[in-house]
Amino acid sequence: MKVCSHKGYRIAVFTRDEHCPPHVHVGTQEWDARFLFSFWHNGVSLWDVTPTQHTPCARVLEELRQVLKRRSHLRRARECWWISRNTLCLENLGWDVDAQEVASIGLNRPATYPSLSASFDPLAYTTQIRLSGHANLLEIEL
């Protein structure tokens, strides 16, 4: 699913055989870069580029990362991921209420509650996470 285009590059969420964590693909016939995004913060980071011998220059990759960070493009990436995958990729993760971030359950953080379920509301542009042992639904405005 196309998220956006930039200088001839097509940024897209693939809909077949995809896997967590949420990410988009962009590239050419020579290389494919994947950029990570999430449903609980607005950061975007480069995940990897394959094959490594054809990696474009850092300036191109940073420019693509900045394009994806634009509110409208990040929103579209989230919508595409949610429509095609119907998951926020929070399985075996939790929410650290002190740090206000997603955390691994195995890190022995005392304020981390396991995620029971999570959903994304594209209209309200919010993420809702139901936490084990926590009475209130966590709602994150994006």
Brief write-up:
With 142 residues, the protein is α+β, with helices and mostly antiparallel strands. 19% of the residues lie in helices and 39% in strands.
Structure description:
This protein is of the alpha+beta class. It has two domains: 2-85, no CATH class; 93-141, no CATH class. It is 19% helix and 39% strand. It is built from two helices and ten strands, in the order βββββααβββββ. The protein has a five-stranded antiparallel sheet. The chain has a three-stranded antiparallel sheet with strand order 3-4-5. A two-stranded antiparallel sheet has the order 1-2. It is elongated, with a radius of gyration of 16 Å. The model has no long low-confidence stretch (mean pLDDT 94).
Main attributes of the structure:
142 residues, alpha+beta, five-stranded antiparallel beta sheet, three-stranded antiparallel beta sheet, 2 helices
